[in-house]
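Here is an idea for our session: we take a single protein and study its fold together. To get us started, please write out a protein record for me. Start from the sequence, derive the backbone structure tokens from it, and show both lines together. Go ahead whenever you are ready, and we will take it from there:
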Amino acid sequence: MLSIFRQYTFDDSFEQVFVSNKFLKEYQIALTFATDYDEDDHPTNGIFRPTWDLQKVTPEAIELFKEKGRSMDVDVKVFISIGNRGTHQPFKPLDNKTWIANATQSLTNLIQCKELNLHVDGIDVLYEQIDASPGDFIQCVGQLIKNLKENGVITEASISPTFNLNKEFYSRLYNAVSSLVDFVDYQFQKEVDFVMNPGVLLQRYNELTKVYPRRKLLAGYSAENEDWTTLSPIVFFLGGMDILKKRKAPGISIHYHNFYAQSSPQQ
């Protein structure tokens, strides 16, 4: 049985999900993304704004889903994912001190905003492109997580490494603030070398447990076709089953949206 399932989404596709304590204990909604770029793609140096679909992801939708979870004895949590996909809108602070202050205040405002009131439990850090030094990334993101937790704005935090950035950035960030990081959601769809069979995936997970505690290490994947270049869905499904059974991982995550919706997400 899964302990945790996380869904990355910019819409209300979580409403289509059946939740039951027969299958899992906790369901996490990770909203993508809060970004510190304006609508013209200019960096705002830590002033974050939501880019998920505000018309669909409403306080009512979140509360109804949380209530459905409670009725099935499944804990539902909401994370705001800060970051980017691909090379668009990378992590690029203009100066660290101001970025930290702006990010702390803007995310506090976003999470505690009475109009949004999305019952946010935590933040997730998922940058696939970082145009800064490892030291800057660790200082800025580490202090942001610390500020939000110490101020009682969030109760949980996660980081979501990718292959290219794991060693220099994410593993060092984890070592710096390990006591403040509740989950590490490794994004397997971003592997560089082709993953031919489930055994390779299990081996890679085993290697990661030398860096991150297994009790925190989720196996992440994407349902988006463009992310299947090096890892097919069937290989992840079979490998994921082995990771859950043999390595007793706490859970998995999937990037999934309602692709059949007529309207596009708000940007």
Notes: Residues 260-267 have pLDDT under 50 and may be disordered.
